[in-house]
C-alpha cells in the first residue's frame, strides 16, 4: 500500500477545515477513513460498545476515463465491532467493495459498502449509521456536540516535512437508535466520537513498530485522543502524541511518554494502559472492558471498548473509551 501511496502528491501543508464539506470524501487524496465509536445503554441496562469504520483507497492518482460500469478507481473496506462486556458477547464483521456498479462508494454526504452506510444529514447536522454483525443490526443517529472538531494532521513523530494527511477528531456526540437481534429490537442511547482522516499517510503499523490508538471520554466533559507507535519488543522511545481536550478549553498536547502500557499483555496485546501528565494534573488508568482475542478481520488488530478511571485536576473521574491496536 505504501508504494501506491507514494504515487500521490502530499495534500497542502496546511488545511483550512470547512464543514459540512470535510465530512464528505476527498477523492483527490490517496486514502481516507471515517471512524465512529461509542458506548450505548438500553439492553437490559448493560453497556454495549460499537465501532464502525470505513476506509477508501484510490488505485491511481490520475485514472484513465473508462466507459464500463465495471471499471473501479477506488476500493472500500468497512468493519464493525459490537460487544456487550457484561454478557461476554462480541461480534465483528466486514465488507469489501469496489467503487463500481454502486456496490461501494463515497460522495460529499455519505460513504457506503453494500448495505452498510454512514451518511451526514445536512438538516440536523447529524450522522446516520447503518451496519450489522453476527445477526445483530445496528442503526444509529449521532447528534453533534456544542464544541467544534479538533483538527489533526500527519503521523506524529515521523519527522517528515509535510504532514501527508489531515483530518479531525470530534468528541462528545450523543447517540440514539436501535439494536435488532433476530426478532428483538432494543432502543439504545449513549455517547460517541467521530474521526475522519485523509491524505497520503494513514496511521498504520510499520515494520517493527506497532500502532496504538486510544480515545477517552470522561464524565467531566473532557476527552483525549492518543496515537502512538511503539517498538514491538521492549525498548526504544515511543513516537506519537496525546491531545487533551479539557472541558471548555483549547486542546493541549501532552508529552509522548504520558501514555504507556501496564501489566502483562493479554492475547498478545496490551489491554491495560496508564496516562499520566503532572503538568495537566491527569492520572488515568484504562483497560479493556472485555479482555478477549482480537476480531478475525482482513486488517488484523485488537479493537474494543475501554473503561477508565483516575483523577483530573485532583478530582476523581470516570469514563469510557475505545482502543485500537495493530502490528502485534
TrEMBL record:
<protein>
    <submittedName>
        <fullName>AttH component of AttEFGH ABC transport system</fullName>
    </submittedName>
</protein>
<dbReference type="Pfam" id="PF07143">
    <property type="entry name" value="CrtC"/>
</dbReference>
<feature type="region of interest" description="Disordered">
    <location>
        <begin position="1"/>
        <end position="21"/>
    </location>
</feature>
<feature type="domain" description="AttH">
    <location>
        <begin position="32"/>
        <end position="199"/>
    </location>
</feature>
<dbReference type="InterPro" id="IPR023374">
    <property type="entry name" value="AttH-like_dom_sf"/>
</dbReference>
<dbReference type="InterPro" id="IPR010791">
    <property type="entry name" value="AttH_dom"/>
</dbReference>
Amino acid at each position: 500500500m505504501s508504494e501506491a501511496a507514494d504515487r500521490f502528491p502530499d495534500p497542502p501543508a496546511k488545511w483550512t477545515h470547512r464543514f459540512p464539506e470535510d465530512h464528505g470524501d476527498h477523492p483527490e487524496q490517496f486514502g481516507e477513513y471515517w471512524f465512529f465509536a461509542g458506548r450505548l445503554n438500553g439492553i437490559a441496562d448493560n453497556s454495549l460498545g460499537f465501532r464502525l469504520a470505513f476506509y477508501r483507497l484510490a488505485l491511481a492518482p490520475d485514472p484513465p476515463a473508462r466507459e464500463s460500469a465495471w471499471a473501479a478507481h477506488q476500493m472500500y473496506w468497512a468493519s464493525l465491532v459490537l460487544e456487550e462486556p457484561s454478557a461476554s458477547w462480541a461480534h465483528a464483521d466486514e465488507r469489501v467493495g469496489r467503487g463500481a456498479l454502486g456496490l461501494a462508494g463515497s460522495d460529499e454526504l455519505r460513504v457506503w459498502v453494500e448495505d452498510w452506510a454512514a451518511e451526514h444529514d445536512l438538516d440536523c447536522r447529524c450522522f446516520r449509521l447503518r451496519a450489522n454483525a453476527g445477526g445483530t443490526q445496528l442503526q444509529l443517529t449521532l447528534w453533534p456536540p456544542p464544541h467544534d472538531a479538533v483538527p489533526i494532521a500527519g503521523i506524529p513523530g515521523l519527522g517528515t516535512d509535510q504532514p501527508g494527511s489531515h483530518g479531525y477528531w470530534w468528541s462528545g456526540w450523543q447517540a440514539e437508535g436501535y439494536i435488532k437481534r433476530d426478532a428483538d429490537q432494543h432502543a439504545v442511547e449513549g455517547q460517541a466520537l467521530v474521526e475522519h482522516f485523509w491524505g497520503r499517510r494513514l496511521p498504520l503499523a510499520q515494520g517493527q513498530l506497532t500502532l496504538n490508538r486510544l480515545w477517552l471520554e470522561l464524565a467531566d466533559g473532557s476527552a483525549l485522543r492518543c496515537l502512538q507507535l511503539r517498538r514491538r519488543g521492549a525498548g526504544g522511545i515511543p513516537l506519537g502524541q496525546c491531545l487533551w481536550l479539557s472541558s471548555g478549553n483549547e486542546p493541549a498536547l501532552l508529552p509522548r511518554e504520558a501514555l504507556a502500557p501496564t501489566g502483562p499483555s493479554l492475547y498478545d496485546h496490551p489491554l491495560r494502559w496508564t496516562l499520566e501528565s503532572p503538568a495537566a494534573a491527569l492520572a488515568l488508568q484504562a483497560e479493556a472492558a472485555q479482555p478477549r482475542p482480537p476480531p478475525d478481520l482482513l486488517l488484523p488488530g485488537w479493537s474494543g471498548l475501554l473503561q477508565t478511571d483516575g483523577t483530573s485536576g485532583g478530582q476523581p473521574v470516570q469514563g469510557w473509551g475505545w482502543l485500537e491496536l495493530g502490528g502485534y
